[in-house]
Write a structure and sequence with these properties.
The protein is α/β, with parallel strands linked by helices and about 210 residues long. The protein folds into two domains: about 1-75 and about 150-210, P-loop containing nucleotide triphosphate hydrolases (Rossmann fold, 3-Layer(aba) Sandwich); about 85-150, no CATH class. It has six helices and ten strands; from the N terminus they run βββαβββαααβαβαββ. It has a six-stranded mixed β-sheet with strand order 6-7-8-3-9-10, sandwiched between helices. A four-stranded antiparallel β-sheet has the order 2-1-4-5, covered by helices on one side. Strand 4 and strand 5 form a beta hairpin. The longest helix has 16 residues, at about 165-180. The protein is globular and about 50 Å long.
């Protein structure tokens, strides 16, 4: 089953083409790596797939449904794009509890489990403002996976992670993929994508190429 489909997707911002006629098909259950330098267009492409921007021309479908103004976002999605901000005065658990209340589809046990998977203690009352960069990134991963989404969109997800945390991240991605999740990861470091991806694209100046 094709889970994500872009056809001649083009995005122009202030007369600059940032995505140029993107044609891309991602099958359900793939782990796709998107490799490109900074400002290559990879984050903009993730924004397109997540419904955060609209095309200048072309179309995008997720799970067979066009992303339009009436249906702007994929129905089941976990996301990390840019730096994920949390309420600095609250604990990790409290922050995820607030985010979970938006959809209200998971209970406290699911939140606790997500934190434990990234090796954060759900009972720790330390406020997020005291977290290291690596702890913040692990918290961002926890918020992306806690609702067991069908689609994970991850921009530079291994930023600030040490060797042990990168191994934990890889194991989580394998577990999520085994559950049936389609995963799209972007990074400017090819080795980070090779941790778990089974299909690769390169992007440069808004143009995409599938690697063999």
């Amino acid at each position: 089953m094709n889970y994500v489909e872009l056809e001649n997707y083009r995005k122009e911002i202030q007369r600059n083409t940032v995505l140029n006629k993107i044609n891309m098909v991602i099958e359900q259950g793939q782990i796709v790596g998107l490799f490109g330098r900074n400002a290559s267009g990879k984050t903009m492409l993730l924004r397109a797939i997540s419904g955060l921007i609209r095309p200048t021309s072309g179309t995008i479908k997720v799970k067979g449904e066009n992303l339009t103004y009436l249906h702007p976002f994929p129905q089941s999605m976990g996301i990390i794009i840019d730096t994920v901000s949390f309420w600095p005065q609250y604990s990790a658990f409290a922050c995820l509890k607030i985010l979970a209340s938006i959809k209200n589809t998971i209970d406290d046990d699911k939140i606790r489990n997500a934190l434990q998977r990234v090796e954060l203690n759900p009972d720790d009352k330390m406020p997020v403002r005291k977290f290291s960069m690596g702890m913040r990134q692990r918290l961002a991963i926890a918020q992306a996976i806690m609702e067991e989404p069908e689609l994970l969109i991850l921009d530079e997800p291994t930023n600030s992670l040490d060797t042990q945390s990168r191994s934990i991240f890889r194991n989580i991605m394998m577990e999520e993929n085994k559950r049936g999740t389609t995963i799209i990861m972007a990074s400017h470091i090819r080795e980070d994508l090779e941790l778990c991806c089974n299909s690769f694209y390169s992007i440069e100046f808004g143009n995409i190429t599938q690697e063999k």
